Amino acid sequence: MSTRRRFLAGLAPLGLPAALTVPFASTTARAAEDDRYPSRPIKLVVPQPPGGPSDIVARFLAESMRASLGQPLVIDNRPGAAGLIGTAAAAAAPADGYTVLVTSRSNHIIAPLVQQGATVQPVRELQPVGLALRAVGILATPARAPWRTLPELVAAAKAQPGKLFYGSAGIGATNHIAIEQFKALAGIDLVHVPYKGSGPLITGLMAGEVQLALLDFSSAQPALKGGSIRPLAQTGLRRLTSMPDVPTLTECGYPRFDASFWIGLAVPQGTPAAVVARLSKALDAALADTQMKARAQVNGWELVGGGPAPFEALIRQDTADFPPLVKRLDLKA
Question: What secondary structure does DSSP assign to 59-124, as a single string?
């Protein structure tokens, strides 16, 4: 007779109902499974198309975290509804640590406020694993555009109200909200063109379909290096060493324009604390990796980490800040 069967048999003389033994058995099995975690590949859900900032970061993290976890991390791109399709899929997955969402301010905070009929509430249905990074944004224009600086574009927009277009990664995306803020600060009227993700947005900007876009520096690099788009300003506190000639927004006269991007990892609510801790430790190890630090330098990333607590604090702050902003801008999709 097994140890477990002998233990359960010993409970019978005490008159304990069989139902009371089930939670113990279930908890014991769950603890044993947690100790073995991970014992199979982990799915990284990216709620945007390939080529965007979340996708780029996800692929780097998948490579770096595999060494710590001893299992492959498989990318699962699920774009749509400003990131809510992939977010909902991750939130509905079993809370066992084998489905991890690569999340951002766009899909985690803003899209549920903007998308009418949104059925997922990420702040309630997902729990933070850790904040991977903050990313520098680039305000860019097509290379063939006549303006060469941000003040020149603003002057052109003022001379042609409602005639110039700006693109975003979708209604409610971080760069949608940010450029609406910029329009108000600059006193200009630009027409919004939503795309299905950052990759299509960059393609549209390169083709001249829109005259302005706020792009994550990492995803914009190929187009910048190829000379098909022109950077006008960057969102960092100081100029990137890789783009020393591109001024910051503060230098351009817009110190109150907050256009930061962040990317983190989250799992379904109810995921065991030991599993969350294991994932968080693997994330921190990946961020400390020399190769990841080199990538951060090239891509304009500020690596963060530090466990769930700092990420949870950032989410709480965004949850307080963005609802009134979305309401004031009357954003709906």
Answer: HHHHHHHHHHHSS-EEEEE---GGGHHHHHHHHHS-SSSSEEEEEEHIIIIIHHHHSTT----HHH
